[in-house]
Amino acid sequence: MNSILPPIATQHPHSLTFHGDERIDPYYWLRDDTRSNPEVLDYLHAENGYTEAMLRPTEALQQTLYQEMVDRQLPDDSSVPYYLKGYWYRSRYLPEQEYPLYERLAARPDAPTELLLDGNQRAADVDFYDLGALEVSPSNHWMACSEDFVSRRQYQIGVRNLQTGEWLPDRVENTSGDIVWSADSAGFFYVRLDSETLLPYQVWYHVLGADPAQDKLVYEEADNTYYLHISHSRSEEYLLISLSSTLSSEVHLLSLKTPHGTPTLFLARRRGHEYGVDHFQQHFYVRSNREGRNFAIYLADDGAEQYWQCLLPVREQVLLQDFVLFRNAMFVEERDAGLTRLRQLDLLGQEIRTIAVDDPAYVLWLSTNPDPDNPEFRYGYASLTTPTTHYALDIASGERKMLKRQPVLGDFKPEYYQSQRLWITARDGTQVPVSLVYRKELYQPGQNPLLVYGYGAYGLSEDPYFASSRLSLLDRGFIFAIAHVRGGEELGRHWYEQGRQQHKMNSFTDFIDATDGILAAGYGDPRRVFATGGSAGGLLMGAVINMAPERYLGVVAVVPFVDTLTSMLDESIPLTTGEYDEWGDPRDPAVYQYIKNYSPYDQVKAQAYPHLLVVSGLHDSQVQYWEPAKWVAKLRASKTDDHLLLLSMDMDAGHGGKSGRYRYFLDIAQEYAFMLALADTSINSASI
């Protein structure tokens, strides 16, 4: 089987020595920062050819799955319009087009629809396209947009005159994608990336019509463990320069009326203090964890903490995630017992109402609310059985109306499916929540193939969301489960803290124990268990199959962060200096050894592994392509089984995979076909 692959050139192994510990890496040669080395590219093409050959028996199934996913989409779908400064804005798809049109309509009778940008035209000559931001100036005369044409998250900014339709010659390169206009619409602020690490670290101001080489540097962050982001306050009076690391943050302010001025510090950073600021009706509103890890909201005139007025106190069991301000109300997004909740408060923090839900596993979120004078508050809702639904709530009366439920074409009906919420006891006694869904008529206790998904990092909560593409698995008898392992923030800040740095191993053991608990509850055939995760969730996959390979028939690892130790020792790549508080700083010998003990690449051993499909992108800026490439090479040389080991390297994409409304489904169809074929053959055969 492996004979059709080119031999791995191991004659020049690379030595990596830290703290007196020498690691020999025979596959280090696969690293090419330029992504142009012919030998490396030839090898990756050979891996792709091998994967294509091994998956050729599933080509018809892949096409069937892809067409199912496409056919569920409304061909001429459009977003819910929102109102801002005299215009209604929306995005709209044309049938068979990959990218939306971005349009606006003046709020007056018989006003024509105005095309702001056609994503299909912008993407016509490239293999990848992503619109980062589209910002119309306060005057409504100019539009600035940030676009990525390579999939490296390096956005270039262009400007269009909305009165004439012409694009200005202004072109700003190598930005994060953030755009904030000055109050006079004469220019905009943006964020430049470090040319080597791609970290966002400088704020610049560009005057329309000027040479970008003459742009003014507004702020520069010297500490490379911080990420920089810009936005405008709710009052539209301030540019907010927000700096954040894993455990601390800092905000600088600049009046949007004086774009050539100097930013002022709101409150200096200190270890362990995370805060965010908004400004509205002459006051600052601060979300801060200074009095507890689950955050509170304070009313302030400035950064003098001793004078802050607490509007919503810290609660031990409830995580305050976000808030949005209106003229006479505040809406807060919270998380309690692993599920999201939205509440309406007055501007002094007194509760007015809680928004009700019905499903046992669901997600609520603050939606697009750009106008604080709007009498309606918009929010989103979804569950494992309910497509994304947008609602408007009358702020005064509490009456709600549905604006749109995402259409799912075909014979889909929510009542065909059942979602459940389980609590699984992990090996240390911790209760781990699991959300799962299946098609009712196909459920047979202990007999269905099972797919378990996990992430567990950065305090990012993996909510029970709806995906129409997932129906292709459920309608073929699969049970889909989300293991809400430690490292996320589903149960509050402590849930995150118990799954990072020296507690990272909890993420992996939680996933394994959750898998066992799901099976013990009767949800799934132990012989047909699959697992999947991407990025940090790919690290999860790599660690789990080193620790418990016998639990899983097949695993799909997407852009997996698997060479963890080597990457965390390399400050030249984006996913390093800003991540020390997440994974730990391996320049400390104890941290070095802890990371090495779970780093998937370092822990590959001579044992049988599950069938494995590894998906990556050559231009990935977050997890460099050579991590999965090296991992696959080392696994192939070490494993003792004859199971499939496949690397699918997209030579045009990056961290998010293929761009485009429909092309995205090609990757999912490949992954599903891989699992479905194994599920069908696993009882009598070990190969596709």
Automatic annotation (TrEMBL):
Top-level taxon in the UniProt lineage: Bacteria
GO molecular function list: serine-type endopeptidase activity
Pfam family, one: Peptidase_S9
Enzyme Commission number(s) from the entry: 3.4.21.83
Statement: the UniProt record of this protein carries the keyword Hydrolase: yes
PROSITE patterns attached to this UniProt entry: PRO_ENDOPEP_SER
Keyword terms: Hydrolase, Protease, Serine protease
Domain Peptidase S9A N-terminal residue range list: 7-405
This protein's name: Oligopeptidase B
Organism expressing this protein natively: Tolumonas osonensis
